[in-house]
TrEMBL record:
Associated pathway: Metabolic intermediate biosynthesis; acetyl-CoA biosynthesis; acetyl-CoA from acetate: step 1/2
One GO-annotated biological process of the protein: acetate metabolic process
Annotated gene: ackA
Origin species: Streptomyces boncukensis
GO molecular function, one term: acetate kinase activity
Active site positions: 158
Residues that bind Mg(2+): 10, 394
Full protein name: Acetate kinase
Annotated positions binding substrate: 101
Amino acid sequence: MTASRILVLNSGSSSLKYQLLALGGDGGGNGNAARLATGLVERIGEETSRLVHEPLTTGGGRRERDGRVADHDAALEAVADELAADGLGLDAPELAAIGHRVVHGGLRFTEPTLIDDAVLTEIERLVPVAPLHNPANITGIRTAQRLRPDLPQVAVFDTAFHATMPESAARYAIDVRTADEHRVRRYGFHGTSHAYVSRKAAELLGRDPSETNLIVLHLGNGASASAVRGGRCVDTSMGLTPLEGLVMGTRSGDVDPAVVFHLHRVAGMDADAVDELLNKRSGLVGLCGDNDMREIDRRIGEGDEAARLAFDIYIHRLRKYLGAYYAVLGRVDAVVFTAGVGENAAPVREAAVAGLEGLGLAVDKDLNAVRGHEPRLISPEGARVAVAVVPTDEELEIAEQTYTLVSAR
Ligand SMILES: Nc1ncnc2c1ncn2[C@@H]1O[C@H](COP(=O)(O)OP(=O)(O)O)[C@@H](O)[C@H]1O
Ligand SMILES: CC(=O)OP(=O)(O)O
Ligand SMILES: [Mg+2]
């Protein structure tokens, strides 16, 4: 059987990550998916944009291009050129569909969805509740439609996995009529990652996912925790928007909502100014000027007080959610770390569970220091609760969901 190619686009506020995969054919690694090319365009809109492209099957090496990429439209054009140079262009007949990561799907979208005008309008309507993400996702979709109007375009939503949250976790304790009228509730994000990592973690533990309870910590630039019972999400730390919960690279996570009125009344900041403060000038960058955990780690090593305090605040919040989700689940089989920080920052993992032996939680120092791309346990042998590192792969998950949907048409 010949494979179908799926191009996956993950458009962030200032970046475009992409992967081209072949699915449904014979052979190939990773189940039956083979990765053909991967890359990213970062710092879109700045003078110092950079494109990194890596063909994975042609034997050609990794290519980097520096120079301004004005917007997401130009970014996708540049990616299309790189793919074409490898004989993997968007005009290839093997290309079966384009899968898009869409961050906010609201109440309506809880499954992978074929994109038409009505779907696009609904994704646009959700821009106010995902202001950093949905606009970039929409540009990605429009450009892809322009380049290949004949191809199915599929949206895979970050919110979908969290649709199973019970009302007790999904509702805020505010006036019900106001909440319902404006659809103010907790949606949760990074769901594609939480779902993928939950399945992989159960596999690593040798357990049936339907009988496995997990706390999944997706710690990237954006960060969120999920409580997963038997493969279904029962609580997650992000809410109406991807601002609630953990301390992130540039986002505050939880604050007293009165901070917003206070800054309005005493500092004259309007809604947009506070929005910008909490989303872009808070979190690690607001606390110490850096949002990259590698840099923070280096500064801590030099005795930098601000970096130390930023790290401590980050860890304190993470531990609070760990404790909360332990109580939500009652029985926990594993705590699972994923995404850029979770997969790479051993000091974060160590500090997150330090002193929690009473809860059955510990990391083995040597196992925690191991680096790698495979799912692995880092808890001591025989530990009551496993602690694991499971690399996420949102692109593979989106490709598989996209392939399943278009193959069934
Ligand atoms: N080797 C590393 N050590 C510590 N932290 C790392 C390392 N590599 C990446 N990170 C962290 O991961 C973050 C990016 O995570 P990622 O999951 O790629 O985020 P996003 O998908 O939101 O762009 C970086 O900002 C940095 O803090
Ligand atoms: C929803 C979200 O926060 O996504 P990211 O981590 O990619 O910014
Ligand atoms: Mg991410």
